[in-house]
Amino acid sequence: MTLDSCTIVRSVEQLVDTAEIVLPGAVFNKTIDIEKQLSVGDKVTIEFGYDGRNRLEFEGYLQSISTDDDMIKLQCEDSLHLFRKRLNDAEHKNIKLANLVNTIISEIGINCSVECDYNVAYDKFVFYQATAYDVLKKVQEDLKANVYFINNTLHIHAPYKVLANSETVKFDFAINIEKSALKYVKASDKNVMVELHAKGPDGKEIKQNLGTTGGEVKKFVSTTSNPEEMKNIAKSIYNSYVYDGYEGSITGWLIPYCEPSYKVSINDDDYINKKGVYYAIQTKTSISKDGGIREITLGRRLE
Asked: How far apart are alpha carbons 168 and 177 in whole angstroms?
């Protein structure tokens, strides 16, 4: 079957990673009846590369099939697709986040591990006509957390968490950056106010602010109510937004491979002061008759 194009979007900020596979609606004037060959919920594995040396780029499930405009479009989701199962209505009180997540995983019968940085607890969490996906979405919104799958592990981390086994991918404007949409911004030009919230042992709210009054407000839930520790957390978050460095994206080819949470080293011999290592927030990988490209959206500067 002829492939028209394939686009994969992976992100630590987008709850579910997606892939779109586009096929022609007909081959040699014969219509393809795709729905006789595929069904929603089928397992999907996508590999591509150069000269037959392919690499696994996406694993997930077929979410929908459309046949508009004489093209067949297959929309796919990663393992978060399995979390779209309905939960039994229930009320959980004084439940820690890790226990909450493991509860929904157990109920929907998924075999995966969990890595969670947060030690926060919900006073009350109600399941009412909700899916496990809805629960994770609320957790992401409440904590401003990065929620994503890697190798059958569900990760729930504070923004810009660098994993222990995170790889560093090297890019150079003179070698392997095809194009860029970058803006170099100085810390002195950024106006940000970080608001960190927590609940003390007595149930009262504790707030720690750091930044420029009147600046863009970034709200987060703290993993601790200790005032000194909250100051350090607020400072770490603030530094993730306020730094001298690039904002935007770079586009390369399929090699070198990169995925969200990787460290991206950028070299520019014309501007030595702009060298740096950044956190990869998102990758958008596309392949078609024109070849393969990977667009990487940069997050905070790490080094």
From this structure: 16
